[in-house]
Amino acid sequence: MIEFANQTEDSVVEARKARVLKMAKGPSQNRAAWFPLAVLAILLVFPALQFVGNFNYFIHLLLFAASYVAMASGWNILGGFTGYISLGHNVFFAVGGYFAGMIFARYGISTIILAPVAGLIAAILGFALGWITLRVRGPSFIISSLALVMIARILFDNWEFVGGAAGLALPANSLPVEWSKLPYYYAFIAMAAFAVWASYRIKHSKFGLGLRAISKDEIKAESAGIDTRLYKIGAFAVSAFFVGMAGAVWGEYLTYIRPNIFLIILVSVNMVLICLLGGKGTVAGPVLGALLIVAFNEIFVATLGASEINILATGLIMALTLLFFPLGIVGTLAKAGKLPRILNWD
To answer: Taking burial as the number of CB atoms within 10 A of a residue's CB, which of 12, 19, 88, 325 is the most buried?
Structure first.
């Protein structure tokens, strides 16, 4: 009897080890590894169409979507992998924008060059804020993240050194109109590609495995020996890095920095909605979600105008999508075993 119990226990341990190894492994052979690379190649050569026509509008849409891919992929590390929903990530968007924008305005160093440094500043701030806010969980953490936005908005609105509520104008680049968007286009494409790649690498690392364990059951993860607090703070800092980088370049692209550009709740809400729509906790989810959100917004603005009706229509589409895809499009299709190979990036 004792021998049978020992055999059963050994088989359970072996099964658990096999499951952990399977989770830590790379993706299955059913994924199309070439697809994201093909998409990246197409995006890199897309601006060549400017030689045969004016595609500035489409370049703007693609760089706008790429900026949200970078930010949502960063947010997904905390909100998707770790399970901590933050509505305050636009604070890092603002920190990156103001840090790089102020240096650009005074010393002429392009924000594209400063973006990694701005991301690092945002990550350091994220580590510090995570040390404080991640003491709480669930709704309390969400409320504390919202409080960060309110505090930051009051601070930047009254900080005369950075222009206060009126903000600060930034010099535009000297390129011809048809090429003026290209530096920012390639910067955001590079950020998006890096964020997606880093998201994949993190998910399949020991760190990512710990984050997913926290998302499933934080108490069990802690009892298993995972330093949950350090893991959560690390996830907070890494996610802040990508949002801060995007904010740095966004300010120069708009040619001004202002609190009501960076510190509005819609920016954070869009990061959350993109991940929920595409698939929270997946690698391809933020990419698909960003493309759909930008497409929905542009279609409804063009047909319904920039009014409350446009917002209502977008909200209705979101509600219907999540009704049929409760885990997001990628997550729901993957669970049902119907995910197309081109969306299987995990």
So the answer is: 88
pTM of the model: 0.88
- H-type alpha helices, 77-138: 90-107, 111-133
Report the phi/psi class of residue 231: left, alpha or beta, with left for phi > 0 and alpha for psi in -120 to 50: alpha
For the chain, the distance separating the N- and C-terminal CA atoms, rounded to the nearest angstrom, is 43
Residue that has been written with the tokens 């299955």 in this structure: 28
Q: Mean pLDDT for the chain?
A: 88
pLDDT of residue 300: 82
The residues pairing with 82 across neighbouring beta strands, listed in sequence order, are none
Q: Is 32 exposed, middle or buried (0-12, 13-18, 19+ CB in 10 A)?
A: middle
C-alpha span between 191 and 195 (Å, rounded)? 6
Sorted by where each starts, the structural domains of the chain and their CATH numbers stand as 33-343 (1.10.3470)
* pLDDT at residue 14, as a whole number: 55
